[in-house]
Amino acid sequence: MPALDLVTAELTLTGRITTASNATFLGSIGDVVVVYKPIAGESPLWDFPPGTLAHREVAAYLVSQAFGWDVVPQTWLRDGPFGEGMVQLWQEQDPAQRAVDLVAADQVPETGWKHVLKGRDENGRPVALVHEDSPALRRMAVFDVIVNNADRKGDHILAMTDGHRHGVDHGLTFHRDHKLRTVLWGWLGDALTAEERDGIDRVSEGLHGELGKNLADLLSAEEIASIAARCAQLRLAGRFPPPRGEMSAVPWPLF
């Protein structure tokens, strides 16, 4: 039997993910479960060009591949029932794990977790936003800096059974202006590891080769130049950067 062509084989819709801000569908290509986001279903935004979110999702996957860390599940552009859109392999996360959480302010774990901020829940009780202190999540935080992720919510991090962490929902990325909004601020000021520095170098070098060629079909020349600038800045600093600018440093809602 010939291998299934994920680009041309029929994409059948099986449901709609109603919690998403843009039209998002669950579907299948043969026996492969996928997420499908048609460009026609993208909500207009004041700060991102219209009809580009699917392209940014694919670009995020290509940069993830260049890092070599498998942050973003396989993602590609193809035609579907509502026209061209982004298609991504569905990931079945472990419901028993949670990489980011809200806990009572007096119950922040002493080890294995990073405390990001304090607040109050809908009943006025003090709570704390925390995330796990793991190499997988550190790599995702580095990835978010380079792609300039404006929307790293807690629920955009999928905790897999084997301990791997996938990041999803990367439509709000690659803006040429600083837009970083994330829940992963726990390593602020910490030095980058050798592995993290090497990953940045792979992306930087890739922009002059195959990665740069592929991104040219998805992003503007200015946006690609901004990726190179962020690589150079982060590599020179050698540390996780602090928030900057007047905008919120975290997305809202947090999850």
Nutshell version of this structure?
The protein has helices spanning about 55-65, 135-145, 195-205, 210-215, 220-235, and strands spanning about 10-15, 25-30, 30-40, 75-80, 85-90, 100-105, 115-120, 125-130, 155-160, 165. By secondary structure, it is α+β, with helices and mostly antiparallel strands.
Question: How are the SSEs ordered, and which strands pair?
Answer:
Elements: E1 11-16, E2 25-29, E3 32-38, H1 53-67, E4 75-78, E5 85-89, E6 100-104, E7 113-120, E8 126-132, H2 135-147, E9 157-159, E10 165-167, H3 194-206, H4 210-215, H5 221-237
Antiparallel strand pairs: 1-2, 2-3, 3-5, 4-5, 6-8, 7-8, 9-10
Structure report:
The protein is an alpha+beta fold and 255 residues long. Helices cover 25% and strands 21% of the residues. It folds into two domains: 11-96 and 134-237, no CATH class; 100-130, no CATH class. It is built from five helices and ten strands, in the order βββαβββββαββααα. The chain has a five-stranded antiparallel sheet with strand order 1-2-3-5-4, with helices on one face. The radius of gyration is 18 Å and the shape is globular. The termini are far apart.
> For the terminal residues, how far apart are their CA atoms?
43 Å
By DSSP (H or I, 4+ residues per run), the number of helices equals 5
Strand order of the largest sheet: 1-2-3-5-4
Strand residue percentage: 15-25%
- Topology as a string of helices (H) and strands (E): EEEHEEEEEHEEHHH
- Overall shape: globular
Q: Which residues form runs of ≥5 with pLDDT under 50?
A: none
Q: Assembly type of the shown chains?
A: single chain
Please summarize the sheet with the most strands.
Answer: 5 strands, antiparallel
Number of domains: 2
Mean pLDDT: 95
Report the count of strand segments: 10
Helix content estimate? 25-40%
What is the rounded Rg?
18 Å
Structural class: alpha+beta
